[in-house]
């Protein structure tokens, strides 16, 4: 291993990246039921039930109200804050028949066309985006 | 005796699979991206590997938070394309090679890698998109596949050094397999991408290309890149590149690049692709 | 800071649990066997560990041939006693310590151990019998438990050396845990037993006792015993003793034996038990 | 690792132990459905169904005839030869409400009382039982 072998130091570094929630076990534990709900959408019959009544379907899961609201609002930044992981959350936007590009763009605060245009132009530059403490 | 004859690395973006499945690869958005795989598709048709050891990660498909193996080797007879929320990709079942897979698993455990053996699982875009990129759209895949799923979702993933060392152990395992097999090893995922948060869309073409350079020129540098560098420099999902190091570790000291391709973007991601051949 | 204050090893024979559950420990067949645990039960009542890291193996209970993790650490909140075919043992639920378990898992992965993290599973006699032996029959177990399940069923299990090294990594992980906790580590299974075939019933008291000796006197010899020696000398299920080396590896260079017990037979098995304390 | 690091040599050694079938992956693969059938007996409702009609229950599983017969006969040596593992097979003799001691003894060719007496007297000696090639 290069880098820290102390886990606290390792985790502290991960928190230093701007605009990024690394899926640590702390987040994984917080998001457990949110993510399990997402997994359930891998079955077409569950997708149909969810589409037929989102709130009722969510109420079958022991999720927090904030988690349920993040799903209802399709507020993926809020869902990340509630312990969601993007690969789990992808089951929601796949159910919505929305692409990764469309869904991911919503988290940036950019308009969809602008986000797509930025990607076609080569994507977001890392300059100034590498560290919260001392941007470079 | 089985031989690892080549290593292939490529991104495994879901949109690449969707573009192929929906016949959209000739559209202007996709044309240049797919053009870079044409050389490899012809080369694979000539190479005719018997087996591909396909290093990928499961994206919350076969494994959820209840079961997180760091290194899971697929020892099953066959694997179905998973329903990731939009129905399964319309691709053939993936045919395993349980004899070789169990041999590798056993050998790697003797070599002090703490493998998890998995016999039943569905495989997601991480595994099927690379097959489509290299083999196109056949009715049956032209070779058997040994899936090797690496945890890069829940932190910490294995270190680059550990991945590289696993590749070296896989090479020893393959070399001790009695059957005469043409084996390739593929590393998938990456390159730059961040799929979450306000920083989504980050791409670092310079870093990615130095990584491609050093797969040939200085792999020992790559094995010591800490996780935090992948995240800072290439986005939170750029960490997937540690899986390329398993492929590279399995090829031995020196390699030659036969083909290389880099394209931005596919969806949110920088597509990187390289074909390597062991030398000597 | 968390501290590993002691290591305990013991066999985990199902019949030991059944004898306790059915109130038969004072029968002549069982009396001497159970007498050797009385010292430890009093000692544990005084020690009051906060957490036990309990190294055991799953006996085709939580894991079948479809999922075989070499090292699986239990990161769940609680675990139920499994129904192994005769109904669940009537013992309390086992309460996990997810904070400590995830900390150990993460630390060991940084230390290049390829852990599997498991959050939902039932636990079988391998885990519950040692709890009964050390704690008797309380309404709730007196401490939290971090299960560490080791594959010793499908070959190859991890080497003795790898087990010992994992113990060393666990010790580093515990030492870096900020909460002030009294942590014990237990290694279970063994000693001599063979549960299958015409050679069943094999017991090698001499070998077992040398193993008990060298847990104190020469642990570096033990870590290099090859699997075949366990099988030849102590029966096919004697391999479970590699799990004791995880416990031993976590205790550091020197230990003192506080208590030791050896009894033949419990059912088909030689019961061994030792309590070790790190020195210096 | 001490001992061979070559897996073929490692496996060959395991085959050299008299009266013993080590549960190698070759055996595990052969016994897959036999062992999965055994796992099903961890549910009381399945134990009841099995007891109510052993043959019919076995016929629900893609097991070989030899595997089914070994189960019906409670011939545990035969079950081992067919790829069974003792911890899986334990679900059968637990269903029969037979102990490990009773079930394991049946594999030795000894009468139950004799096997039990041998164990109480200290068990089977390893002398001469360590190797097929050169007993010691
Ligand atoms: Fe991926
Ligand atoms: Fe055991």
UniProtKB/TrEMBL annotation, chains A, D:
Q: Which GO terms of the molecular function aspect are on file?
A: protocatechuate 4,5-dioxygenase activity
A Pfam short name: LigA
Enzyme Commission numbers on file: 1.13.11.8
Q: Record's InterPro entries? A: LigA_sf (IPR036622), PCA_LigA (IPR014159), Xdiol_dOase_LigA (IPR011986)
Going by the record, the broad EC class of this enzyme is oxidoreductase
Keyword list, A-Z? Dioxygenase, Oxidoreductase
Leader peptide range in chain numbering: none
Q: Where is the Extradiol ring-cleavage dioxygenase LigAB LigA subunit domain?
A: 34-119
Instruction: Name the NCBIfam families on file.
Output: PCA_ligA, PRK13377.1
Q: What is this protein called?
A: Protocatechuate 4,5-dioxygenase subunit alpha
Q: Which organism is it from?
A: Sphingobium algorifonticola
UniProtKB/TrEMBL annotation, chains B, C:
List GO molecular-function terms, semicolon-separated.
ferrous iron binding; oxidoreductase activity, acting on single donors with incorporation of molecular oxygen, incorporation of two atoms of oxygen
Asked whether the keyword Transmembrane helix is assigned, the reply is no
Show where the Extradiol ring-cleavage dioxygenase class III enzyme subunit B domain sits: 9-271
Task: Say which domain of life the source belongs to.
Answer: Bacteria
Q: Cite the Pfam families for this sequence.
A: LigB (PF02900)
**Coiled-coil stretches noted in the UniProt entry, renumbered to this chain:** none
Keywords (alphabetical) are:
Dioxygenase, Oxidoreductase
Q: What is this protein called?
A: Protocatechuate 3,4-dioxygenase
Highest classification ranks of the organism: Bacteria, Pseudomonadati, Pseudomonadota, Alphaproteobacteria, Sphingomonadales
């Amino acid at each position: 291993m290069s880098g820290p072998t102390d886990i606290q130091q390792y985790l502290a570094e991960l928190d230093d990246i701007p605009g990024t929630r690394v899926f640590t076990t702390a987040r994984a534990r917080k998001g457990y039921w949110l993510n399990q709900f997402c997994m359930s959408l891998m079955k077409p019959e569950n997708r149909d039930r969810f589409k037929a009544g989102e709130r009722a379907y969510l109420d079958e899961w022991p999720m927090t109200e904030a988690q349920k609201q993040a799903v209802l609002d399709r507020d993926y930044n809020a869902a990340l804050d509630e312990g969601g992981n993007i690969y789990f959350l992808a089951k929601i936007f796949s159910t919505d028949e929305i692409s990764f590009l469309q869904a991911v763009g919503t988290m940036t605060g950019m308009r969809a066309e602008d986000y797509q245009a930025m990607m076609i132009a080569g994507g977001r530059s890392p300059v100034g985006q590498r560290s919260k403490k001392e941007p470079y | 005796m089985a031989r690892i004859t080549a290593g292939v690395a490529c991104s495994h973006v879901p949109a690449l699979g969707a573009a192929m499945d929906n016949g959209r690869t000739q559209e202007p958005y996709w044309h240049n991206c797919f053009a870079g795989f044409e050389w490899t598709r012809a080369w694979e048709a000539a190479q005719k590997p018997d087996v591909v050891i396909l290093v990928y990660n499961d994206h919350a498909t076969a494994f959820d938070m209840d079961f997180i193996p760091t290194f899971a080797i697929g020892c099953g007879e066959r694997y179905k394309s998973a329903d990731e929320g939009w129905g399964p990709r319309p691709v053939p079942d993936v045919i395993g090679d349980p004899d070789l897979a169990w041999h590798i698993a056993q050998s790697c455990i003797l070599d002090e890698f703490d493998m998890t053996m998995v016999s039943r699982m569905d495989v997601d875009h991480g595994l099927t998109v690379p097959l489509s990129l290299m083999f196109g759209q056949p009715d049956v895949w032209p070779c058997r596949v040994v899936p090797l799923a690496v945890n890069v979702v829940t932190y910490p993933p294995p270190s680059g050094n550990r991945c590289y060392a696993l590749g070296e152990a896989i090479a020893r395992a393959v070399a001790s397999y009695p059957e005469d097999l043409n084996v390739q090893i593929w590393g998938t995922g990456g390159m730059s991408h961040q799929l979450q948060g306000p920083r989504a869309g980050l791409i670092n073409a310079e870093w990615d290309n130095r990584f491609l350079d050093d797969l040939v020129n200085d792999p020992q540098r790559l094995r010591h890149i800490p996780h935090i560098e992948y995240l800072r420099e290439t986005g939170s999902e750029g960490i997937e590149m540690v899986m390329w190091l398993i492929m590279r570790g399995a090829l031995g000291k020196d390699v030659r690049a036969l083909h290389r391709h880099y394209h931005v973007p596919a969806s949110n991601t920088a597509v990187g692709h390289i074909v390597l051949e062991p030398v000597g």
